Amino acid sequence: MTAARLTLCSDVSRSAGEDPVGTAPHWAEVTVLELDVPVWTQLRAVDTWTPAQSAVFAALREKVGASGAGFGLLMSAPTAPGAPLRVRHYVRGPGGYRRQDYRCDLPQGEWARGLHDTLIDPARLRDWQAEPTPTRGADLHVCTHGTVDAACGRYGVPVHAALQRAGERAWRTGHFGGHRFAATAVDLPSGLLWAHLTPALAVQVARREVAPAQVAGHLRGYAGLPARAQVLDRALLVRHGWAWLRAERDAQVEGQTVTLTARFGGQTVAYRAAVTDAEPLLLPGSSHQPERSQVRQYVLGDIDTLPARAPELPAL
Predict the structure, then answer these.
(1) Exposed, middle or buried: residue 198 (CB in 10 Å: 0-12, 13-18, 19+)?
(2) Whole-model pTM?
């Protein structure tokens, strides 16, 4: 008897017409650990953590509780398997996130040190070797973690391969949430998260060769803002074009009212809109857990500009 074909959660999401906006995690900073793929499983195996590793995550939970600011943890495969530990650290600021790379002589099994020194005690980064970082272009972290969800293997691997062939900066990356959006990617330093990428579309997005309006339905949101603000931010990206990503954006959310302030050079402008709940969808949490639960969808109201004159953003 032939086994039934697995229904992939990303296929269900697409067929249901899910709008992915508002699903990007809210991060103040992001640490990317360069780890061989087998080490990804070790890091996810909470029961095998040493006391020191557990203490790092306890300190991170305390930090989030005190500040309310989340952090991103990504695992990407290094260019040289078995290489000593390297990290890429992104801190939120004007135009998205600022990247700095570090390397040391520690083995990859000391991954907790990378988290501690970047996210908890940055003063200890003096013990690392800072490396030159690119000043232009996108870093695409594509989830290819098929052992966590088959959808990420099925759709993420070809997207990563296409980006590599095109000469773009792309990394095979472990699970960071959002199986049903495969192929999904974290686009840094812009801080955008993408959904349902195809190989061709991923290259266009990396190169900004497609207008934001054409890919708005693939945007999960900007990780520098909370969920409802991501909805308004997407509309403003469509309005202003890719130059919008250069602005430093902050938001205040009061109930369902979002006020987003953007600073670009010497200009500051605020936008306000209602972001209300639409009818939720019932979708599976993953390809391997077919049970369905409600998934929030949003409706964006009219956008008011405060003051009335919007800024003139230069082209990229």
Answers:
(1) middle
(2) 0.93
